[in-house]
Amino acid sequence: MKKRLLLLLSFVSLLLNSIRAQTYDICVYGGTSAGVIAAYTAAKAGKTVILIEPGKHLGGLSSGGLGQTDIGNKYAITGIARAFYRQIGQHYGKFEQWTFEPHVAENLFKDYVKKGNVPVWFEYRLLSTVKKEGKIQQITVEPSNGSGKGVRTVQAKMFIDCTYEGDLMAKAGVSYTVGREANSQYNETWNGVQMLDKHQFPEGVDPYKIPGNPSSGLLWGISTATLAPNGTGDKLLQTYNFRLCLTKDPANQIPITRPANYDSTKYELLLRQVAIEKPQHINWGVMHIADMPNSKTDINNKGGFSTDMIGMNHTYAEADYETRKKIIKEHEDYTKGFLYFVGHDPRMPQHLRQQMLEWGYPKDEYLDNDHFSPQIYVREARRLIGEYVMTQHNCEGREVVKDGIGLAAYTMDSHNCQRIIVKNPKTGKMEVRNEGDVQVGGFPPYPISYRSLIPKKADCQNLFVPVCLSATHIAYGSIRMEPVFMALAQTSAVAAVMAIDAKKPIQEIEVRKLQNTLLTNPLMDGSQPEILLDNDVTPTKITTTGKWQITKAGGKYAATQLVDYSKWKEKGSIRFTPEILKAGFYEVYIYNPSPMGGGGNPGEAADQAKASKTAVKVKTAQKMEEVSLASQTQVNDWIKLGTYPFEKGAGNFVEITNQDADGVVVADAVLFVPKK
């Protein structure tokens, strides 16, 4: 009798919740860049969708200071993600741009949800999930302030977890991992413990409060952990930081003042590092300052001691909300203190202090957060253990999946995981070292498996995880880039729509149909896809005559560019031949990269080496046209040649030649955009 009563009460409770619940086709949790694109894609596909964001802002890191877009190979980014950077370009009067101010990105993300008519619940965080027969039935969210009032319930056919932490995935009881796998687990070489020389302290940095005196204790930020053998797995996370937007514009500048909770002893290691390295400038010497438009920056970690708060995030991934809030505040205090210390501590070299004082917080950014980014850089947290696990073998091309639904192209990149002490074998003295930084690249774009976005069928049949996807620590380090997240989010939304329409689990959809949809309808608006030809990715569409050299240097669009140094002493040309599927007018763009050394001009400056004009021929349906391109303008940018009528098939082409060249001629990528 008691058991029946409990079942009845449970049923009544579920029924009441379903009555109160709001129902959608697709629920997206996490308003990161991926979350916005997933919600927009679902809406464009005609489904009802809700976007839930625990914070106050849209865009995650893409609007949170990471304006220096990490990608490695722009060709790899397709669909709505590529269109995002085109719209960023339009804001700055260019065709395409990958560097931008935070508020520009956030406004664009707001436009996406507005154009998609997507309702957004800001400041709501996940409280619980109800899963039945392998599917999430509903989720309950509460106000992020923890007040306990205003709890809401959402029922949906499909769910997409777009958080950096994988919170919905975890609440749904899906298999995941945290930390670094041992190399032996997947037969990798760059996973687990790695003691390398990138972002490392110079030799001779003493770890003790009183140099040479172990009894005085370790300086702040140094762990007492013992270095494990190379390749050993553990639960450590690569370090977090804030990507810092500062400005040099006095009219838009707020001075960097002494922050609350300031503790100068946290930065003693920086003094010891600087004393040995003697950097001439804070850029590269103390931090990495990437220039953004309008005199702003995207500042990242650089060197042994910088903006990364190494070792202070290890509990973050699985922590409760209050603990995470505390960890984020500690990182904020550390970062603000670091900037103040560099500019004001009298022990810092005067020239470095003076350089730091040129910068300040921007008045026009993060207006509701004291002009400081509200988004900590969660480089890695939980990772799904899904139908397929991406590994180092995928990154390096030794294993190629057939169900690829997007490309990754970045270096296998991990920031340091811990700061420890080791004995210098040459001197016998104990010194401080960072462990965990890995930067291994040199491989072309590679496909990401659809199965890496979905849980095992036994775990869940209606949840996509495009951000905390199924990958080993070191493979995730290559995949974890914002534009890739956006592309994978679009894939997830399209697949969710397919699963709804077919009334199938997400593990059973037709992947070939998904691939075809992404290829033929990349903007989700039915428009004809553009054609992008590049010497790295579409070599069969490109033919050359003469002595063109392949170089990885310079401002190429993909991995390499083609360069001719002959100055027309030997005739040379490169022909780009698109396969036109539909006759009509196409806008034609040529990517104009900068050559950097090599060939006949080693070390020569790009503008000096480059030909003043480049001769281009365009074969259309009607005639051959010749265009003279001012090749020393719009360097590392797309240059529009014009709009041309092309016939169906392969009878059209664009040809770059070295005719009358008075310097270096470069050729890289050509873009054909159907005229709407």
Describe the fold and architecture:
The chain has 3 domains: 208 residues, FAD/NAD(P)-binding domain; 243 residues, no CATH class; 144 residues, Sandwich (Jelly Rolls), CATH 2.60.120. The chain has 15 helices and 33 strands. Helices cover 23% and strands 25% of the residues. A hairpin with a 6-residue loop joins β17 and β18. The longest helix is centred in the middle third of the chain and has 24 residues. The protein is globular and about 85 Å long. The strands form 11 sheets. Strands 1, 2, 3, 4, 5, 6 and 21 form a 7-stranded mixed sheet that branches. A 5-stranded antiparallel sheet has the order 23-26-31-28-29, with no helix packed on it. It is an alpha+beta fold and 676 residues long.
Reconstruct the topology from this structure.
Elements: H1 2-20, E1 22-29, H2 33-44, E2 49-53, H3 79-91, H4 102-115, E3 120-122, E4 124-132, E5 135-143, E6 152-161, H5 167-171, E7 176-178, H6 183-186, E8 208-210, E9 213-218, E10 253-254, H7 268-277, H8 282-285, E11 288-292, E12 296-300, H9 321-344, H10 350-356, E13 361-362, E14 382-384, H11 392-395, E15 404-408, E16 412-414, E17 418-423, E18 430-435, E19 438-440, E20 446-449, E21 463-464, H12 473-479, H13 482-502, H14 511-520, E22 531-534, E23 542-545, E24 549-551, E25 561-564, E26 573-576, E27 584-592, H15 606-609, E28 613-619, E29 624-630, E30 637-646, E31 653-657, E32 665-667, E33 669-674
Parallel strand pairs: 1-2, 1-6, 2-3, 6-21
Antiparallel strand pairs: 4-5, 5-6, 7-14, 8-9, 10-13, 11-12, 15-20, 16-19, 17-18, 22-33, 23-26, 24-25, 25-32, 26-31, 27-30, 27-33, 28-29, 28-31
